[in-house]
Specification:
Strand order of the largest sheet: 5-4-3-6
Distance between the termini: 45 Å
Shape: flat
Structural class: alpha+beta
Radius of gyration: 17 Å
Number of strands: 6
Strand content: 35-45%
Number of helices: 2
Helix content: 10-25%
Largest sheet: 4 strands, mixed
Order of helices and strands: EEEEEHEH
């Protein structure tokens, strides 16, 4: 796939970037006791990702097939934990479990 030129606004600056759909990133967010791995997967830019979960063997195969770059604490993005607009599906599931399965606020 070809790279696509685009412009991003970061703070008060406009930054020209190339979106490269061949770049793929994985950031492991949780190793579960049941053998599943929770992770973020992104294509082209690490900032935009989907949350995924796979069994360990399938995760290994997925990463090899997609030739991912692994993100760790030093390469992952700063996430403002206090941002009210920031949430993860895993956070919601944890809150539901803590409330005994009650989905109402």
């Amino acid at each position: 796939m070809p790279k696509v030129a685009r412009k991003l606004i970061r703070g008060n600056q406009e930054v020209a970037t190339l979106f490269d759909p061949n770049k793929k990133f994985v950031r492991v967010t949780r190793l579960r006791e049941d053998g599943f791995i929770e992770f973020d997967f992104s294509v082209g830019e690490a900032e935009i990702y989907v949350e995924m979960i796979l069994p360990a063997k399938a995760f290994d195969d997925f990463c090899l097939l997609n030739k991912v770059t692994f993100l760790d604490e030093s390469t992952s993005l700063h996430i403002d934990e206090g941002d009210p607009n920031r949430w993860r599906l895993a956070d919601v599931n944890t809150q539901i479990a803590k409330s005994g399965g009650n989905r109402q606020p």
